[in-house]
């Protein structure tokens, strides 16, 4: 992720976010919040002085960037008076004032309102096009004043989220959290898993009398699993997939990715594979969390299927 170039040391960043109803303001604010900003929607701007004087709920030094959303529904909104108030606030060296306006074509806004069956906030008893035109006129002074304008006419929600993250993500935003879990299919698949890899095609250490009481954390079990003729090729292909797909998840703003490796009982093959991929992903720059769900489960031959030599 590229480092932002807008932040100035020792200044409270305040982003004023507005736009036409249906253009994506709420999505933009939620994306900013997920990126580390403190976001407040439909806030009466005349009360901004009181808000700034209130200690941040995120950290005590009040340096968390603040995003304030407003539109035609905001109580007592008058854009000309609003801009004067913002200019006065910007003259204070304590603050760095930014602005973002979400725009959209009238035809696209009409389509969105027709699809959602919602009424435009300024057209209670008139066609949506009338309300859109009235709102555009009301907010036009702020649109002309804003230094950041995003036209969402041809954007999906995902496109808008990506654009906001690229423009305004903070350098301190954490990387995506990757969790690796080993488990046994005989005891059920874990909940909330994004990717599941079934490793039962590898030979099963359970049917070796010396290895049965051990786990995938033991070297002798790992050596046994690694000796399978299919091991190297399968590890390589799965790793290639993860190297390709994890950055894509991160680019789309996914905060958590849970990957599970399963074998029959969850004590041998899946445990070794999970440890193996934890090491590989660390080398690739990730810091995966590791969980072995069935590592201490009771050994039951009947759950392990047919022995490899039969």
Describe this structure in words.
The chain is an alpha/beta fold and 310 residues long. Helices cover 36% and strands 17% of the residues. It contains nine helices and nine strands. The protein has a five-stranded parallel β-sheet with strand order 2-3-1-4-5, sandwiched between helices. Strands 7-8-6-9 form a four-stranded parallel β-sheet, covered by helices on one side. It is elongated. The two termini are 53 Å apart. The model has no long low-confidence stretch (mean pLDDT 83).
Helix segment count?
9
Give the strand line-up of the largest sheet: 2-3-1-4-5
Task: Note the run of SSEs as H and E.
Answer: EHEHEHEHHEHEEHHEHE
Total number of β-strand segments?
Answer: 9
Q: Work out the radius of gyration.
A: 27 Å
Distance between the termini: 53 Å
Structural class: alpha/beta
Helix fraction by DSSP (H/I, runs of at least 4): 25-40%
In percent, how much strand structure appears in the residues?
A: 15-25%
- Quaternary assembly: single chain
Report the biggest beta sheet as strand number plus sense, adding barrel if it closes.
5 strands, parallel
Average of pLDDT: 83
